[in-house]
């Protein structure tokens, strides 16, 4: 540890000018660190607002390319697609997940035609498709692990064939990374990457997201039997280690801000690309405070994202992505 004493040592010297601050900055935040989550809905017409997430919308396929164009123009490397499946297509088995022409597959094909260089990340789980709101199939009130994994394998292959570049399993079933990797490889999809939701906690911060997908009211019970206990940290390292061993190319910690300690531990232990999800509840909390003048919007957005980078995140899934990219481009 370097030490020094005042007045010989004055730490403020390096803070005096902007050029010095830039030169000695320990952490950087750029557009390359941003991923934009997007909600895709059925039907045409104007995007519909998500009431619980100020400024966030559900967009139909007819407006999707126009909606995504600013992100592509700003150089955001990837977007993450989430389908707001119509209620009439949901059932206990989540069979719409296996439809090769479902919302997320249609969106992927459309966007690959319009923006071939833009990375597409596809959510793989059953909660957008089940009428009970769980991430797998229920058997006697319990989410059946192995049976759910078999469905996730086929869901992942469908998405990859439609143009999804990165499969992102968010279900937290045991063994799903190895099974999905094997399924992709068997179809010759050896270059399709897997970004595992490796440490996904049973959090209070998901409410607005579930509202956006229409799964909040339908959810029966909670997800504590498969998502992680917020009390645990060592368990997160075991989850990450298993997913890496099974073939994950990248890992994610979710939520973000309440779990910066987990991001740091994962980054230091495994030295693999580690991502954070600034989830809907975090976004809603910040955006609402900004709307009421309680936080400076521009500084608040960039400071929270810098916090993820400082903790060790290679990138952040954030609903602020386009706004943050605009600020960063502006300097």
So what's the overall shape?
A: globular
State the fourth-level CATH superfamily: Aldolase class I
Main sheet properties: 8 strands, parallel, barrel
Give the strand tally. Answer: 12
Query: Strands across the major sheet, in which order?
Result: 1-4-5-8-9-10-11-12
* Structural Rg: 20 Å
CATH topology, by name, is TIM Barrel
Q: Low-confidence parts lasting 5 or more residues at pLDDT below 50?
A: none
User: What's the overall average pLDDT, rounded?
Assistant: 95
Q: What is the CATH architecture assignment?
A: Alpha-Beta Barrel
Give the distance, in angstroms, between the N- and C-terminal Cα atoms. Answer: 33 Å
Mind telling me the CATH class? Alpha Beta
Which structural class do the helices and strands define? alpha/beta
Assess the beta-strand content as a share of residues: 15-25%
| SSE order, one letter for each helix or strand | HEEEHEHEEEHEHEHHEHEHHEH
Portion of residues in helices? 25-40%
- Kindly give the count of domains: 1
Number of H- or I-type helical stretches: 11
Structure, explained:
It is a single chain. An 8-stranded parallel β-barrel has the order 1-4-5-8-9-10-11-12, surrounded by 8 helices. It is of the alpha/beta class. The chain has a single domain, classed as TIM Barrel (Alpha-Beta Barrel), CATH 3.20.20. The model has no long low-confidence stretch (mean pLDDT 95). The chain is 39% helix and 17% strand. Helix 7 (234-246) packs across helix 8 (260-270). Strand 4, helix 3 (103-114) and strand 5 (119-124) form a beta-alpha-beta unit. It is globular and about 70 Å long. The protein is built from 11 helices and 12 strands. Pathway: Porphyrin-containing compound metabolism; protoporphyrin-IX biosynthesis; coproporphyrinogen-III from 5-aminolevulinate: step 1/4. Keywords: Heme biosynthesis, Lyase, Magnesium, Metal-binding, Porphyrin biosynthesis. It catalyses: 2 5-aminolevulinate = porphobilinogen + 2 H2O + H(+).
